[in-house]
């Protein structure tokens, strides 16, 4: 047999990863386990300055243009759910990652990993949803790839998209820029995507119809930037929900977040479903919401602009960035007490996007 | 249950796809079945002008910069093989797709789909190989993603990379530009990647050590462009091999290719292995070779430049682009006859990259 020692040379598991010497579902949950994998496995292998920012998208310069560049794979189960499909997520998720740096999304790549034996009509419906979502988000799919894996090594359809967009001059939006005093704004009610997928996956109903909030947020961001380019942070609270997003921002910026729990908009149906199932809306995935850190003087104007936009009309200030308890998110509860909103370890619902 | 009719609306299978109403391995083989899927399923759903070029990478303009943008997913089995690994392929494959438009590759995204239960040491070794390949190719991984799927819905590690690069001014390289009279040049011996993967997959030995040719080709392309910007077509003959690449170019440009079969460099070990297994080297995948269509007056100089480069020192003229038999590749065989080199239906060895 040919010598392949060069490729199979030892790799030793760094300390924090040793608790899980094999991949567990939580490694893909966007929480603490995902972060460990990135910090201790991927960054040492190929990390650079851009990757270490751990933002949703990278800001790079090429040919004089300031670009945002981002990628996500989508493995949501089931492929179709109330309010959307893997095709919608594949567009909106990547478009939103670009928008969270203030970029105007322009072009997408789209790569399918199909499982042998999947009905072509399923692939066709996913592709149509993806095309419709791209048109709605005003981005163009310009390049693609299709691979097929043997039956039993996939799950119908996995999709990866990568996207590039142009970052306007004067815009510098990233988690590290959060500053004490910033107003923390959420663009709308939270938890809908998580509960919508859960309902169809588990065959549950919660009285009210709940549909995923999946939507492209670049238009909303454009409306916000029209008010002021001085927005410090934008983040879409997907896997791990608002809790994960706020903790990441607190950690990256070395600030704290003081949250007013009562101000966080939670639809009744989400609250009911979460109460029934012992889940916390703060940790539920969203696919069409953003959280913004805005300097206090501009906050009111930005909030107004958000509320004037169809995807932000229920926007609300939910807290403030503080110098106290750096790296931590602390919520004032409805009962007047406080609780620490811990970063999630994994995701409550695996394969939510 | 919530109404999800909007997402499950009918999709009807267009005529050419009806022979295979479900996904078959050949749909991922880069041959005629892949092309059918692209033309009749993906293009109607979200195709645009750029996608219709069916090139390895898209050429787009953003912020005044002329960019190449490309993506590929990698599902090769096994993950490590003589001469490389899925990590090397994930870098070199995407770098080469960018280089085939004459672009200078700059930034990569990298997204993993990991199977629950995979040893982290396996993931670590893949990541290290990927990092080493990126450094060797002079590209930076700037953004990434990790998803985990349940055991039994993956195969250890799948990787997607997307890449962006800058296309130099005055360079316009794409399949449609092939012109009768162009010399057809291959950069080196063919078939090594396919046979290397096959050998380790099937536990076969063929006397001689055979290692994958996986390599980043941007440096070789730069050396060629230093001679003349007037190169018409570049293509890396991956899935479906030289046969697929030449047929695609013939189809896209409406020209024919007259091949001198005896001039195609085939290593003895590849020839032996193919003879034993009833395979054709012309259809074997390569991951570090390119085929170039160069106007006759510049061909000798370009060939010289290729031979002076470590990845092109066995470069050879293997045929000529002709006006006869448009869309077809015809080979003059060693025995003085001719044979039509048909486009492959799928790939001889599924999951070769």
UniProtKB/TrEMBL annotation, chains A, B:
Species annotation: Streptomyces malaysiensis
Protein name: Hydrogenase expression/formation protein HypE
Similarity field: Belongs to the HypE family.
Domain PurM-like N-terminal: 56-167
GO biological process: protein maturation
Domain PurM-like C-terminal: residue ranges: 179-325
Domain of life (superkingdom): Bacteria
CDD domains: HypE (cd02197)
Residue intervals passing through the bilayer: none
PANTHER family linked to this entry: CARBAMOYL DEHYDRATASE HYPE, HYDROGENASE ISOENZYMES FORMATION PROTEIN HYPE
């Amino acid at each position: 047999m040919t010598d392949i020692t060069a490729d199979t040379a030892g790799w030793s598991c760094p300390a924090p990863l040793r608790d899980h010497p094999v991949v567990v579902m939580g490694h893909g949950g966007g929480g603490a386990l995902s972060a460990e994998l990135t910090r201790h496995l991927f960054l040492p292998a190929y990390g650079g300055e851009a990757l270490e920012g751990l933002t949703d998208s990278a800001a790079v310069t090429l040919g004089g243009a300031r670009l945002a560049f981002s990628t996500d794979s989508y493995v949501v189960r089931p492929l179709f759910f109330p309010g959307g499909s893997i095709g919608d997520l594949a567009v909106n998720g990547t478009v939103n990652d670009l928008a969270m740096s203030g970029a105007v999304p322009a072009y997408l790549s789209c790569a399918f990993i199909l499982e042998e034996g999947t009905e072509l009509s399923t692939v066709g419906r996913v592709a149509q949803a993806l095309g419709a979502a791209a048109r709605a988000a005003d981005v163009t799919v310009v390049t693609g790839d299709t691979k097929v894996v043997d039956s039993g090594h996939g799950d119908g359809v996995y999709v990866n998209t990568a996207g590039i967009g142009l970052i306007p001059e004067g815009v510098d939006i990233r988690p590290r820029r959060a500053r004490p005093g910033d107003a923390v704004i959420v663009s709308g009610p939270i938890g809908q995507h998580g509960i919508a997928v859960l309902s169809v996956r588990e065959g549950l109903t919660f009285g009210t119809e709940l549909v995923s909030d999946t939507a492209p947020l670049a238009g909303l961001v454009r409306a916000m930037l029209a008010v002021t380019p001085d927005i410090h942070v934008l983040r879409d609270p997907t896997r791990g929900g608002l809790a994960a997003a706020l903790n990441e921002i607190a950690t990256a910026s070395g600030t704290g977040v003081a949250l007013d729990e009562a101000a966080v908009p939670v639809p009744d149906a989400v609250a009911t479903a979460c109460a029934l199932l012992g889940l916390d809306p703060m940790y539920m995935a969203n696919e069409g919401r953003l959280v913004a850190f805005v300097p206090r003087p501009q906050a009111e104007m930005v909030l107004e602009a958000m509320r004037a936009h169809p995807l932000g009309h229920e926007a609300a200030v939910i807290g403030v960035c503080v110098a106290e308890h750096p790296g931590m998110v602390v919520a004032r509860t409805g009962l007047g007490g406080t609780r620490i909103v811990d970063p999630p370890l994994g995701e409550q619902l695996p394969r939510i996007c």
